[in-house]
From TrEMBL:
<feature type="site" description="Stabilizes the basic form of H active site to accept a proton">
    <location>
        <position position="92"/>
    </location>
</feature>
<protein>
    <recommendedName>
        <fullName>Peptidyl-tRNA hydrolase</fullName>
        <ecNumber>3.1.1.29</ecNumber>
    </recommendedName>
</protein>
<dbReference type="GO" id="GO:0004045">
    <property type="term" value="F:peptidyl-tRNA hydrolase activity"/>
</dbReference>
<keyword id="KW-0963">Cytoplasm</keyword>
<feature type="binding site">
    <location>
        <position position="67"/>
    </location>
    <ligand>
        <name>tRNA</name>
    </ligand>
</feature>
<keyword id="KW-0694">RNA-binding</keyword>
<dbReference type="InterPro" id="IPR001328">
    <property type="entry name" value="Pept_tRNA_hydro"/>
</dbReference>
<dbReference type="InterPro" id="IPR036416">
    <property type="entry name" value="Pept_tRNA_hydro_sf"/>
</dbReference>
<feature type="binding site">
    <location>
        <position position="14"/>
    </location>
    <ligand>
        <name>tRNA</name>
    </ligand>
</feature>
<comment type="subunit">
    <text>Monomer.</text>
</comment>
<dbReference type="GO" id="GO:0005737">
    <property type="term" value="C:cytoplasm"/>
</dbReference>
<feature type="binding site">
    <location>
        <position position="65"/>
    </location>
    <ligand>
        <name>tRNA</name>
    </ligand>
</feature>
<comment type="similarity">
    <text>Belongs to the PTH family.</text>
</comment>
<dbReference type="GO" id="GO:0006515">
    <property type="term" value="P:protein quality control for misfolded or incompletely synthesized proteins"/>
</dbReference>
<comment type="function">
    <text>Catalyzes the release of premature peptidyl moieties from peptidyl-tRNA molecules trapped in stalled 50S ribosomal subunits, and thus maintains levels of free tRNAs and 50S ribosomes.</text>
</comment>
<keyword id="KW-0378">Hydrolase</keyword>
<dbReference type="GO" id="GO:0000049">
    <property type="term" value="F:tRNA binding"/>
</dbReference>
Length: 181
């Protein structure tokens, strides 16, 4: 089994914010596969399943706030007995310019509190799909990530391409790399 975890904050007011790019990508994957999310309070998450019995994939949206993502990820990992290397976490990264995506296994949180919460819960050896959202010289990072994207058409195209990339990686395998979307 593999867990594809999109990070974000629950609630309508956060839907199209930079911090919710992980939710947007896993939502697009579910849409492309014609599957729907359901709330599973036992894991503090919404999830959708795809694949066959031997190759099950769970798309997960933790319903804790970003800084407590590790609670939901830890519960889900432990319940389904998933190896950390079979967990892919999709999240925003202010240190990457928009349109860049960096994939790596392990490492530090680089200051991302949601990722740090997951590291605290399960350790650092999981895959990160870091999506560049850039940063502002004038707006504090904590405010920047909670702001909506200005160009929604560009956002939708980026989310669509990243969803395709993740789906392709499920069949071809994932590797450390940086790509431009």
């Amino acid at each position: 089994m593999r867990l594809i975890i999109g990070l974000g904050n629950p609630g309508e007011k956060y839907e199209k914010t930079r911090h919710n790019i992980g939710f947007l990508v896993v939502g697009k994957i579910a849409e492309k596969r014609g599957i729907t999310f359901r709330l599973e309070s036992m894991y503090d998450s919404r999830y959708a399943e795809m694949g066959d019995f031997e190759h099950r994939i769970k798309l997960v949206e933790p319903q804790t706030f970003m800084n407590e993502s590790g609670k939901a990820v830890g519960k889900t990992k432990n319940f389904f007995k998933v190896d950390s290397e079979d967990i892919w976490v999709i999240h925003d990264d202010v240190d990457l310019e928009p349109g860049k995506v960096r994939i790596n296994l392990g490492g530090s949180s680089a200051g991302h509190k949601g990722v740090q919460s997951i590291i605290d819960a399960i350790g650092p050896e999981f895959w990160r799909i870091r999506i560049g959202v850039g940063k502002s010289d004038k707006i504090p990072t904590e405010s920047w990530v909670l702001m909506s994207f200005e160009d929604t058409e560009k956002l939708e195209n980026m989310v669509d391409m990243i969803a395709d990339f993740v789906l392709e990686s499920l069949s071809k395998g994932i590797k450390e790399e940086t790509i431009n979307i």
